[in-house]
């Protein structure tokens, strides 16, 4: 297994890359890159820019494991099933081909209209460290999603008034099938894997719109839509452990045996929907050593990143939290002989 660090838009800096290498990481996942990190001309990430990003990361002794999340304006019509879907699908295909040409092996995505929504700040982790959680009673009102918005981002400046209304599970599964049927064959040819993130929070309906992946069985349904190693999972272990009726150890075993996990968000939580909190790796409901033993026993050789972690009370709260997580993960991986 490989130890990685996720860096958000604007965070792929020389100092953060040095930090990752110093803590023992070997791989980077680049989250939702913006114009400063990865410019998009006509809705497509170009080969030269992708190569520049990869080479910047390589220059610090690290590998670029994946890019995570298309920018909302690149595929809002795909998510909405709108009139611009066909044109955006062609752009997504071009981006996937360019990832392959640039030697970037994986593209993570999250097929959702509401996106990650309703988190609240908490201090229930050890020592009052600042983190996030979901508590249904403390979440904002579930207002309908306005026209021209996906993922809480306004992507259409001149969208009509009103909201998108309700969207059923059948509609969302049909849109996902169209996305995968069009993109997976291109990904296969390009040598790129598509990696699906589950819904966070894993609630069946949010803001009037159906959520797709709120139980491990839904992950299996996604994989079965287009059977291919290029149709894989961005396995968010924290989100899976938040799901009602889910056994996280069984899910790890199930999907790692199928070789369908592209990379892992290695996070611990306390509780399940509708009430849970993100906590340090060693204080949540999941036995993280047991989890890593399952990955290892099943031959998983992908990247694990601590996607979130509580912030500590110091001058560099994010860095200190990530340092704790990476050190914890590296120690277990060395004990298992996995690095």
Overview of this structure, please?
This protein is of the alpha/beta class and 339 residues long. The protein has one domain: TIM Barrel (Alpha-Beta Barrel), CATH 3.20.20.150. The chain is 37% helix and 20% strand. It has helices at 14-22, 47-58, 72-80, 85-101, 169-190, 216-225, 237-242, 248-257, 288-297, 317-336; strands spanning 2-7, 27-31, 40-41, 44-45, 63-68, 106-109, 120-122, 131-135, 149-150, 153-154, 193-196, 205-206, 209-210, 231-236, 261-265, 268-272, 275-279, 303-305. The strands form 5 sheets. It has an 8-stranded parallel β-barrel, surrounded by 6 helices. The chain has a 4-stranded antiparallel beta sheet with strand order 7-8-17-16. Strands 3-4 form a two-stranded antiparallel ribbon. A hairpin with an 8-residue loop joins strand 7 and strand 8 (131-135). The mean pLDDT is 96.
In short, what is this structure?
By secondary structure, the protein is an alpha/beta fold. The chain has helices at 14-22, 47-58, 72-80, 85-101, 169-190, 216-225, 237-242, 248-257, 288-297, 317-336; strands at 2-7, 27-31, 40-41, 44-45, 63-68, 106-109, 120-122, 131-135, 149-150, 153-154, 193-196, 205-206, 209-210, 231-236, 261-265, 268-272, 275-279, 303-305.
Give a quick set of tags describing it:
10 helices, 8-stranded parallel barrel, 20% strand, 339 residues, TIM Barrel, alpha/beta, single chain, 18 strands
How do the helices and strands line up, and which of them pair or pack?
Blueprint: E1 2-7, H1 14-22, E2 27-31, E3 40-41, E4 44-45, H2 47-58, E5 63-68, H3 72-80, H4 85-101, E6 106-109, E7 120-122, E8 131-135, E9 149-150, E10 153-154, H5 169-190, E11 193-196, E12 205-206, E13 209-210, H6 216-225, E14 231-236, H7 237-242, H8 248-257, E15 261-265, E16 268-272, E17 275-279, H9 288-297, E18 303-305, H10 317-336
Parallel strand pairs: 1-2, 1-18, 2-5, 5-6, 6-11, 11-14, 14-15, 15-18
Antiparallel strand pairs: 3-4, 7-8, 8-17, 9-10, 12-13, 16-17
């Amino acid at each position: 297994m490989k130890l990685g660090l996720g860096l958000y838009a604007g965070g792929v800096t020389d100092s953060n890359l040095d930090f990752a290498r110093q803590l023992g990481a070997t791989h980077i996942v680049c989250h939702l890159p913006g114009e400063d990190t990865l410019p998009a001309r006509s809705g497509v990430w170009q080969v030269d820019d992708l190569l520049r990003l990869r080479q910047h990361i390589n220059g610090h002794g690290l590998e670029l494991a994946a890019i995570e999340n298309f920018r909302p304006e690149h595929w809002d019509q795909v998510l909405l099933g709108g009139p611009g879907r066909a044109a955006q699908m062609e752009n997504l295909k071009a981006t996937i081909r360019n990832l392959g040409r640039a030697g970037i092996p994986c593209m993570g995505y999250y097929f959702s209209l509401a996106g990650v929504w309703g988190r609240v700040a908490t201090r229930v982790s050890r020592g009052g460290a600042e983190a996030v959680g979901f508590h249904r009673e403390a979440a904002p009102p579930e207002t309908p999603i306005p026209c021209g918005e996906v993922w809480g981002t306004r992507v259409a400046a001149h969208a009509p008034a009103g909201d998108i209304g309700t969207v059923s599970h059948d509609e969302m599964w049909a849109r996902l099938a169209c996305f995968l049927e069009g993109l997976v064959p291109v990904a296969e040819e390009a040598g790129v894997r598509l990696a699906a993130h589950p819904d966070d929070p894993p609630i069946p309906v949010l803001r009037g719109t159906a959520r797709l992946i709120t139980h491990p069985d839904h992950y299996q349904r996604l994989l079965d839509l287009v059977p291919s190693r290029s149709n894989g999972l961005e396995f968010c272990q924290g989100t899976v452990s938040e799901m009602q009726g889910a056994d996280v150890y069984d899910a790890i075993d199930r999907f790692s045996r199928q070789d369908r996990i592209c990379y892992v968000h290695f996070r611990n939580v306390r509780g399940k929907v509708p009430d849970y909190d993100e906590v340090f790796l060693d204080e949540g409901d999941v036995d993280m050593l047991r989890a890593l033993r399952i990955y290892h026993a099943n031959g998983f050789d992908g990247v694990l990143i601590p996607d979130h972690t509580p912030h500590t009370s110091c001058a560099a709260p994010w860095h200190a939290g990530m340092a704790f997580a990476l050190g914890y993960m590296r120690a277990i991986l060395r004990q298992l002989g996995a690095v």
